[in-house]
Amino acid sequence: MRKLVTVLGATGIVGSKALEIIRKHKEKFYVIGISGHSNVSLLVRLAIEFSPKYVVVSNLHLSSELEQKLNNFDIEILCGKEGLAFLASQKTDILVAAITGFAGFEPIFRAINSGTDIALANKEALVAGGHLLMPLAKQKGVNIIPVDSEHNAIFQCMMGQNWNDVDSITLTASGGPFLSMNSKETQKIPPSEALKHPTWSMGAKISIDSATMMNKGLETIEAAWLFDIGKEKISALIHPQSIIHGIVKFKDKSIISHMAPTDMKVPISQAMAWPERLKIEIKEIDLLEVESFNFQDIDASKFPCFKLAYQLIEEDPCYSVALNAANEIAVHLYLDHKLEFGNIYTLVARTIDMIETTNLDDYQSIIDYDKYARNIAISMRL
Ligand code: NAD
Ligand code: MG
Q1: Which residues of the chain have pLDDT under 50?
Q2: Quick one: pLDDT at residue 200?
Q3: Which atom of ligand 1 is the closest one to the Cα of 10?
Q4: Could you tell me whether strands 29-36 and 3-8 are parallel, antiparallel, or unpaired per DSSP bridges?
Q5: Same structural domain for residues 299 and 189?
Q6: 322: CA distance to ligand 1 center in Å?
Q7: Which residue has a Cα nearest atom 4 of ligand 1?
Q8: Distance, CA of 98 to CA of 104 (rounded, Å)
Q9: Domain end call among 121, 147, 173
C-alpha cells in the first residue's frame, strides 16, 4: 500500500528533497497535496509531475496565475493561510512539515488534529508550540518523526532502546561558517558570508541560524519537546566533520551514535518511510577517508544565541515563542542589510527582556503571542 503524503514547503530545500525521494519511490508514496510560498513556476512543474489533488500558494494574486497555468488539470488551487490550513487538515498517512518558521505552526496543528503523522523539519513550530503540539499528538495517537538530522539521529539511536535507560543525549553542530572567527570579526559580516555553510546546503533562514548557532539552541528546545526529556539531559557539541549527528549515553555508560552523510535525504527518507528504510543514491561516507572525529564545547561568549535559547528549555513557553519570533525578525532584517550580524542576538535578547508573560494554553493564544513578540522586535531600533 502506498503512503498518502502531503508536502508543505515543497519548493524549499527539504521539500524538494522529499519530492525527489517520492520520485524515486513511486511504488511507496502518492502525493495528495503540495504547498509553496511564491515560486509559481516550480509549483506548476511539480503539480504537473505529481498530479496532487491540491496545490496551495500563499497569495491570491499568485493563485490566479497558478489557476491559469493548471487550467487543464484536475487540481484544486488554494491560497493563503486558509488554503494551507485546509490542505493540512486533509487526513493523509504522512505530512512533511518543511515550511520555514512559525508559518508552519498552524498547518502542523491542523494535521495533528486530523490524525496525520508528521515528518517534522519545521523546528520553529515546535520551539513556539511544543507545549501544545506534543500533548495533542499524544492524545490523537499521532507520530511526530523528526527530520532535523540531529533529532532523527537520536530517534534512530533509540530504536529498540528504553528512554528510562538514557543518561543524556548530545546534538552535534558543525559550528557554522564562523567557527574560527571572533565576535569582533563577525559583528558586521555580510549575509553573503553567513549564507556559506561549510557542510550542509540549506535555506537562507536556517543558514543564518547556523552561523549564529541559534539553530543549535532552537534544536535543544526541539529535542526537549520531541523526546520529553529534561534540560539536564540535553547537550550540544561542535563536531566540525558533521559525520556523527546525534549521540545517546545510557546508564551502563554505553554510547550509541548515528553517522550519515551530510545529505538531508537520509533523515527525510527515514522519517517518510518509517518504520521501513529506503534505498537512496547519495555519496556515502568512506570511513577510511575520515581522518579524525573532533568535538569541542560551544563557546557561549562567542555564540550567545545558543546559550540564550538553551536557557529557555522548561521555562514559561512565552519565552520560546518570543525567542523564535524575534529571531525570525532579526534574521529577516539581517538578510535585508538592515541589522548587523552581531545585533541579531541583541535584538532577540532585548525582546525577551521586554515581553510580559501570559497563559498560552490554546492554539489562538500562541498565534496572538507570536504577533505580540514580533511587534516588540520590529519596534526596536538597533
Ligand atoms: P527553504 O527556505 O529552502 O524552504 C522553505 C519552504 O517554506 C519553501 O517551500 C517556502 O515556499 C515555504 N515558506 C516559507 N515561508 C512561508 C510562509 N510564510 N508561508 C508558507 N510557506 C512558506 O528552507 P529549508 O532549508 O527547506 O528549511 C525548511 C524547514 O526545515 C526549516 O524549518 C528548517 O529549519 C528545517 N530544516 C532544514 C534543514 C536543511 O538542511 N535545509 C535541516 C534541518 C531542518
Ligand atoms: Mg539540525
Answers
A1: none
A2: 77
A3: 9
A4: parallel
A5: yes
A6: 20
A7: 12
A8: 8
A9: 147
Contact between residue 129 and residue 153 where contact means Cβ atoms under 8 Å apart: no
| Contact by Cβ (8 Å): 237, 141 | no
Q: Which residues surround ligand 2, an ion (CB under 5 A)?
A: 148-150
Output the residue whose Cα is nearest ligand 1's atom 38. 202
Element (H, E) at 343: helix 343-354
**pTM of the entire structure?**
0.98
Pocket lining for ligand 1, CB < 6 angstroms = 9-15, 36-37, 58, 98-100, 103, 121-124, 148-149, 200, 202-204, 206, 264
Instruction: Specify burial of residue 361 (Cβ count, 10 A radius: 0-12, 13-18, 19+).
Output: exposed
Tell me if 269 sits within 8 A of 260, measured CB to CB.
no
The per-residue pLDDT for 198 is 80
3-state helix, strand, coil in the chain (%, to 5): 50, 15, 35
- Residues 155, 48 share a domain: no
Please tell me the number of the ligand nearest to residue 102's CA: 1
pLDDT for 168: 98
- Output the nine-digit C-alpha cell for 160: 529498540
Quote the number of domains for the chain.
Answer: 3
Residue 335 lies in a domain: yes
Look at residue 291 and tell me if it is in a domain. Answer: yes
65 and 122 together in one domain? yes
86, 100, 262: residue to mutate for ligand 1 pocket, most atoms within 8 A of CB: 100
From the alpha carbon of 205, which atom of ligand 1 is closest?
2
pLDDT value, residue 83: 97
Sign of the torsion angle spanned by Cα atoms 322, 16, 226, 300:
negative
- Are residues 301 and 191 part of one domain? yes
Q: Are residues 118 and 156 in the same domain?
A: no
pLDDT at 382: 82
pLDDT (0 to 100) of residue 59: 84
Please identify, among 120, 147, 174, the residue that sits at the C-terminal boundary of a domain. 147
For residue 23, the CA-to-ligand 1 centroid distance in Å is 20
